[in-house]
Every structure is written in structure tokens, then in C-alpha cells.
Amino acid sequence: MASSTGDRSQAVRNGLRAKVLTLDGMNPRVRRVEYAVRGPIVQRALELEQELRQGVKKPFTEVIRANIGDAQAMGQRPITFLRQVLALCVNPDLLSSPNFPDDAKKRAERILQACGGHSLGAYSVSSGIQLIREDVARYIERRDGGIPADPKNVFLSTGASDAIVTVLKLLVAGEGHTRTGVLIPIPQYPLYSATLAELGAVQVDYYLDEERAWALDVAELHRALCQARDHCRPRALCVINPGNPTGQVQTRECIEAVIRFAFEERLFLLADEVYQDNVYAAGSQFHSFKKVLMEMGPPYAGQQELASFHSTSKGYMGECGFRGGYVEVVNMDAAVQQQMLKLMSVRLCPPVPGQALLDLVVSPPAPTDPSFAQFQAEKQAVLAELAAKAKLTEQVFNEAPGISCNPVQGAMYSFPRVQLPPRAVERAQELGLAPDMFFCLRLLEETGICVVPGSGFGQREGTYHFRMTILPPLEKLRLLLEKLSRFHAKFTLEYS
Amino acid sequence: MASSTGDRSQAVRNGLRAKVLTLDGMNPRVRRVEYAVRGPIVQRALELEQELRQGVKKPFTEVIRANIGDAQAMGQRPITFLRQVLALCVNPDLLSSPNFPDDAKKRAERILQACGGHSLGAYSVSSGIQLIREDVARYIERRDGGIPADPKNVFLSTGASDAIVTVLKLLVAGEGHTRTGVLIPIPQYPLYSATLAELGAVQVDYYLDEERAWALDVAELHRALCQARDHCRPRALCVINPGNPTGQVQTRECIEAVIRFAFEERLFLLADEVYQDNVYAAGSQFHSFKKVLMEMGPPYAGQQELASFHSTSKGYMGECGFRGGYVEVVNMDAAVQQQMLKLMSVRLCPPVPGQALLDLVVSPPAPTDPSFAQFQAEKQAVLAELAAKAKLTEQVFNEAPGISCNPVQGAMYSFPRVQLPPRAVERAQELGLAPDMFFCLRLLEETGICVVPGSGFGQREGTYHFRMTILPPLEKLRLLLEKLSRFHAKFTLEYS
Ligand SMILES: Cc1ncc(COP(=O)(O)O)c(C=O)c1O
Ligand SMILES: Cc1ncc(COP(=O)(O)O)c(C=O)c1O
After folding, report:
1. I want to staple B139 with a disulfide (CB 3.0 to 4.6 A). Which of A79, A180, B281, B362 is the partner?
2. What is the pLDDT of residue A40?
3. Distance from the CA of A101 to the center of ligand 1, in angstroms?
């Protein structure tokens, strides 16, 4: 001890010493976290934007951020009713203004009544404002054809992200061979891999079947589970439906099979259903895990543990910035549920404006309300345009040689597969880049189009993909898709 | 394996089986988390409120929540300018309304320009909107008498809580005797103990000196550090200034001594400065750690690692529900800083309305702006009333026999020490309660006053305290303080 202090004083005299917190010494789990959606490609996009602003000449005039599911960043306008009520909540002086419809005022007053000090500026209870939990429960009941939902099982959150992390936290235990394993789809939304890395849990990959439109196959779940049991204790299964980045919408049969599997294998189910309003394909329909589970009856309905997540960030409203969301837990052990609440209370509460927004999303204007017609028209317009863009994306990509794209049945992304010539793969390896990262970087530099390489989400060895949102306005999207297809052809030629 | 599957099928046939996720099997670190500010006493307060609403007769007509630093929940009105600009941001249609001052409109337009899609509904970059980071940096420079602040070192967060947890996460490493230890004050704000428990770090307690108005004593830091080195590797030191729950404001000399100590002992400094605008006592002044560090010059200024936290929840605005906050890091290793950004990006971004609010807090109206006079008047009124309430609290408590209370120099709480008669302590032990929890529960049941027992924050063995906010309106606070003092006298009599 004495000598180390001596060394230190020496260093101090020299005016030089190592940092206390270094890359080597920091939390190794945090180091292992990867997060592609906002990774190096996005860094580069930011730099390019700056260069453009500084007048640097580029082969494009703007950077198009097709990397993230952020509708309003792509120009989608907020739904009028939602913003009217929120403005009234933020500044209640407006309640006397003649410029707001009556139902918007009533809704704002109702929300404010339920807030501490009748203000969005008070902390709420950690599980979220009680009235809003009740409204969420009623929404779930309507969505699920009357199957009961208990507000006690609904917890509001800071976006769905927060709730997903919280539930995963509860599940992590054990060391070495008994460490918690969590099954996640590949390709996945990288929140899952990042959170498991941070928590020190074991990520157990199950592959979605690209040949069958990214279907989830129970045989593959079995394979993944059996292999994982050699080195960890699998305790949970995550499903994303509709899928990100893969855009598939699961059939009812598939969901039943997954529930049976989880039940037999004693896995806690996490159903990421943030895209539940984003279903476009004819013949596709959203089935909530909760509803299917309840309709399956005993022994599943009363026992299978499930957490279902929803968000204000997606759907028709795309209110990402407000960070609203919730989780409904089903059949969760009561004592564990208490522990979850305790954990949530450490961070005090989710943002109250996001809670208020969630309230409006789960209880929109009724047909007899003055705001109904406009609300409905705006909502339908967004969803109809998304459906058209989903269709267009699939079409244009599938016309391009070397690109193949499954139907975008739901969510907000296409995840096309691209052929990359062997010489391009070699070149990427020389540069120390994943081949699809190399492709996406070149795409960005030459066209300004920012998409995320498939390697950020996971994909079968030797296949290459990228994720592109369908969010740019229709005509712009068409140009983008064509530009991207032409770039791929040129890139292929260049390396052939 | 086969037999366990057999057992399971048996259980399935019986329709009975254990939960996958149980209290025994869940994350043991989460189980160890404690969070008193929203613990059992608050649960009971909620129940009492419900009973009152149902018409149950009680010796009081309302529950007074003096347990949490939530100004607006206690009736404080939001600052007009802040809410005007926010309403304009939320609903930009209002920009054409004549009912908003010009400077509010300009500020809203400026913020919206900096948002994705010019909307609060887009995700921001994970570190927060660039313009707002720049405004925060300029605020810090003004606050610190011109010492430079770099926006690159400012990261916006979901309340200060989020940033504190993030920085602590980076620091946690090691196993057994090399586990990261973090020094925290006792009494402390329980976010720290809860987070360290969750992260599996070692909490190293240093005691504030109640006899000297809760001063921080470097000799005590030394003692705590030396003892801790036997069983962990102390790497960080947290300081809360102004103090929660203790209300002390540190002197410049004290801060210098702490910085020298941290430097010599190679500790990363975390300065929780969320109450920087809440200083009331004559002779007390807020000194930021950053400013003092920089003014100390070499070798400290260029090397000592520091993270300083601020929030929109406290100060004169008390906008807790918006969850705005930031951390400024100083001398952090560049690669570690990259890792921090990566970690933040997993949860996408802090709530954008909270970011916008933070922007207004760090760059309020200038003297030449139309909103200046009203803004200034409202701000001063809040701060003057808080100062009066701080004084009143100290006075009334110190007049009560068996209660002694240090001056509330800053922050929003008193943390008086109460004598509890030995028979009350015995009775509490019979009930399995901490003696001050017993006192606070009885207080709640008989008076409706909800305060948090000192045991939730930590205190010297054998001493008893509670934390009470100074936030209720002045006249109400006076009644509360008197009621509480009378209850203590009665309680003492009852158990003597
Ligand atoms: C599948 C999925 N889950 C969860 C989230 C998190 O969204 P948020 O935290 O904004 O609610 C996203 C966001 O893109 C997502 O795609
Ligand atoms: C000392 C201290 N730090 C941090 C916080 C967190 O505040 P918030 O997350 O609302 O910014 C609080 C809240 O009471 C506090 O008292």
C-alpha cells in the first residue's frame, strides 16, 4: 500500500498519471454491448451532414436517414388531437381558449385531475398514473375481444425499451452453467442483445426462416434450446411480433405453438408487440400473445408467464420523442411483481407527458366526439401510406437482380438480402469490416442513403442484408429504392 | 433431463406448477435493492387516501405527502414562461396565436428547428439535441464564472437519476476483493445504495457529521476508504451538494479538500448537484465541483475525473414529471466516453419534452426579453418562499423537546433527529420494525403526515431521524411542523 502511494506521488509530481476509469478497467459487460442502429454508420451520417452544411461537394444533396424507425423525423406530421390535448395539459391556461375542441379540453382536464398537483410537472407513482393504467387495461380488453385486463398488471414505462430492460433484469441470475439464458430471434432488435450483454445473461439465438417469409419455427426453437442447455439455464423466450427488422406478422397457429413450447419448456415469455398497429399485408392480422394465451385455456391460460410490451413510438402516431410505453404482465408471481415495482421506483417515474400521450393513444376519440372524424382521417391516412410503402419496397427490391426481399407484412422496415460478390467480401475483410457494413458505408458515401447492415441484427453466416425503414414519403421512397438498387448493381459490377 | 420433463408433465396434468420466475429464483441483486422514499410508508399513505375517499373516519382529513421532493405535487405552480414555450413546441399551430409572448415563440421555434422533423415527436440523438447540449455548456460557463465547458462533454438524460446510474455502471468491475467500491455519504439519497446493490458494487459508507451541520470531513473519508480497501477496490466517491436528505451546503474549502482526497486516492468523483439553485442560508453559497476543480489548477484541473449531475426536477421550477437532466463529464477518458454514449444509445434517447424544458432552464429569458419580468418574479417568489420555509422548519423543530434539527442551508428537506424512548424502541423491535419506521408509521396513522424514516437514508447506529420536505405551502407547513412536534411529545409520553 505504502509503496503504491509512493508511486502515485511520484506520478503526481511528474504531472502525469493514468485515468482512474479506463477502457481496460471499466465495466467489461458494458464494453461487450453492441448497438448497431446508432453505430458507426450513423456517426458517419452525422459527419456527412456536417460536411454538406459546410459546403463540401458530395454526390448527393442530403443524407436520408432510413436507419431508424422514427416517423416524424422522416416528415410524418403528428396527429392533431394528440398534440392538442398535450398542449392543454402542458399549459392549462389554454383551457379557456376557443381554439380547442371540447373533447380535447375534457380529455386534458381528466388527465390533469389524475396528476399530482394537477400538473404534468409532478412525479407520478412509479407504476404510472392510476387512471392511465386503467385506460390501458380497457384498451387491452377491447383489443383482445373482451378478455379481462387488470390495471394492477399494467406498468407504464419510459418507452417500451425501459420496460423490456426491467423485465429482463428480473430474470437474470446464476453463474457459469446456471446463468440465465434468453432466447431471442435472429435477426433481432439489438436492444435485446445489448441488454443481455450488459446484464451478463446468455444470449440464445433462434433463427427466423428467411425462406418462409421470416417465419418462427418451433423446431428451431427446440434446437436452440437444447444446445443452450449445455452451457446455461434458459429461462425466457423473446418474440417480436410484428417483427423488427424482419417485418413478418405471426399467424395465430404459430403463436399457439410458441406458447405451448414455452409452457412445456418452462420459459417466461416476452412479447414485444410495439408494432401491433402496423400490419399491412392482406391476410395478415395482429394476434396478441395475451389473447391467444387466454383463449388456449388451461393449463396455459392460468399459468404461462408473459410480459407484453407496447409503445407510443410506433403505430400511426410515431411519437418517439415522448418516450411513452407500457408492459402488461400475465401470471407473474405476486412477490416478483412487487420486486419489479420496487425496481421501477428507484428511477422515480416515467416521463409524465409520455404517460399522458399513451393515455390518448389507448383511448382515442369516440365516434360521437367532435375530434373523431379528423383523428380517424389522419390515422387512416398514415396507415394507408405505410401499407403502400411496404408494398412498393417489396416490389422495387425484388425487381433488382441480386436483391431479394420478403413481404413487409408489418412493422416499419424491409430487411432485404443482398448478394455481395466474393471480391467485395474480400475487400471488406481487408478493411476489417463486416461485408454488409462495407456495402452500407459505400452506399452512404455515394448516395447519402443511411441504412443499417444486417450484421447489426444478426443473420445466417454467409448471408448479407440491410435494414431500411419504409418511412420516407412515398415518392421519395421510390427514388431511394431505385437509387439503392442501381447502387447495388454498380457495386456488384465494380467487384466482379 | 428426461425425468425432469416427466415431473413436469405430471405437474402439468395436475394443473399445478411453480412459476418460472419466483422470488427465490429471480435476480438476487434486484432483491437486495431497497428504496425507502417510495417504500412501505408510501404504500400505507396510498391506502389511507383510499380509505378517506371511501368515507372511513380518520383523525385527519387528508394525507400530507412530505416524503418526496416534488414541489408541484405540493401545489407549487409551474413557471409560466416554461410552460408557454413547451405548449408552443408541443402544438406548433399555436405559433400564430396572439396569446403568447414573442420571446416564447422565438424560443419554441429555435428548439423545434433543432429537433428531427422539427417535432418533439422524433427521437433525438442519444446524447441529446446538439443545440441544447450547447446551451447547457454555456449555462455551465456562466455559472462557473467563465470557465469553459464543452458541449461534447454534456449528455442529456432522463432525469438526473438516469445519468447517475449510467456513470455508476461504467465504474463497476471486478470480483470478490477487487469488486468496485463506491463511497457514498450517510445519510444518502437512496438512488445510490439501490443502484450499487443492483450493479453488484460495494457500497462504502462515509458518515456526515451531524454535530457540525452535516459537514463532510476528509478524515472520515480516509477512515471509510482504508477500511474498505480490505474487501473491495474503491474507485469512486459520490458527493451530494446541497445535501439530500441533510440540507447542508458545502464550503469551498471542503470541496477543495474532497478533490485533493479524490485525486490522491485515485477516485472518480460524482458530484450530485441537482439542488444547485436551492441555497437559502445566509453565508452559504453553491460552489460547483467543476469550478473549484478548475480553479485549483494543476495537477488537479487537468486530470481529476469528475461527473456533475443536474436536473429539471428541483430548483425553482420543480418540473419533476418531465424527467429532464444532464451530466457533464470532466477529464473522462475519451474511449470510456465513447462507451458511455454507446450505452446511452441502447435506450434511444431521453424524453424530448424534458430536453426542451432543460433548454429553457439553462437559458432563461434575458433582461431585454418581454417575458423576463414575470419569469424573474415567479422564480424569486418560489425561492424566497423556500428560504422562509427552510428557516421556519429549523425553528419549530428546535423548539420541540426531543427534536433537534440542523439548519436547512439548501435543498428541500429537513432531517431532524428525534429522541425515541427505550420502550418505543423495544416495541418497534417486537414488531420487527426499525424504531424510526415505527415512529413514522404511527405519525402517519394519527396525523396523516407522511415522512420517511431516517433508516431509509442511513444514520449512525442508535440515532433516529426522519426526512420531511419543506415544500408544503408556508402556513400549512407551520401547522404540520407543530402537529408533528406535538405528536412526538405525545408519543414520548406514551412510551415513557
Ligand atoms: C421491436 C422494438 N421493440 C422496442 C422498441 C423500443 O421503442 P421505444 O423505447 O421507443 O418504445 C423498438 C424501437 O424501435 C422496437 O423496434
Ligand atoms: C440528490 C438527488 N439526486 C438525484 C435525484 C434525481 O432526480 P431526477 O431523476 O428527478 O432528476 C434526486 C431526486 O430527488 C435527488 O434528491
Report:
1. B362
2. 81
3. 32
Choose from A30, A76, A191, A244 for mutation: most chain B CBs within 10 A: A30
CA-CA distance, A442 to A448, in Å (whole number)?
9
B288-311 average pLDDT score? 97
- A284, A287, A289, A294: CA torsion to nearest 10: -140
Residue A54 has pLDDT above 90, yes or no: yes
- Determine the distance separating the centroid of ligand 1 and the alpha carbon of B188, expressed in angstroms: 34
Confidence band, pLDDT 50/70/90 cuts, at residue B5: very low
Cβ neighbours of residue B461 closer than 8 Å, sequence gap 6 or more? none
- B87 chain-A contacts, CB cut-off 8 A: 87, 90-91, 94
The model's pLDDT over B303-334, given as tens digits with 9 standing for 90+, comes to: 999 999 999 999 999 999 999 999 999 999 99
B345 to A38: CB separation less than 8 angstroms, yes or no: yes
A46 lines ligand 2 (CB under 6 A): no
pLDDT digits (tens, 9 = 90+) for A94-119: 999 999 999 999 999 999 999 999 99
- Taking CA atoms only, the protein residue closest to ligand 2 atom 13 is B69
A351 burial level (CB within 10 Å; 0-12, 13-18, 19+): buried
Phi/psi region, residue A467 (left: phi>0; alpha: psi -120 to 50; beta: rest), is beta
Q: A332 touching B, CB under 8 A? A: yes
Q: Which residue lies with its CA nearest to atom 14 of ligand 1? A: A69
Is A339 an interface residue toward B (CB < 8 Å)?
A: yes
- B296 in helix, strand or coil? helix
Show the beta-strand stretches assigned E in B161-279.
Answer: 180-186, 202-207, 233-240, 268-272
Q: Report the SS3 class of residue A357.
A: helix
| Residues whose CB falls within 8 Å of the CB of residue A16, separated by 6 or more in sequence, listed in order | none
Say how far apart CA B464 and CA B436 lie, in whole Å. Answer: 6
Query: Least CA distance to A85: which residue of chain B?
Result: B91
Can you spell out the DSSP letters for A431-477?
A: TT--HHHHHHHHHHHHH-EE-EEGGGT---TT--BEEEES-S-HHHH
Min Cα separation A406/chain B (Å) = 27
pLDDT at B387: 97
For residue A327, the distance in angstroms to the closest alpha carbon of chain B comes to 16
C-beta separation of A287 from A257 below 8 A: no
Query: Residue B201: which of B184, B188, B218 has the closest Cα?
Result: B184
- The order of strands in the sheet holding A466-469 is A413-414, A466-469, A452-453
Residues A465, A413: contact at Cβ < 8 Å? Answer: no
Q: Which domains does chain A have, with CATH numbers?
A: 29-74+377-494 (3.90.1150.10), 123-362 (3.40.640.10)
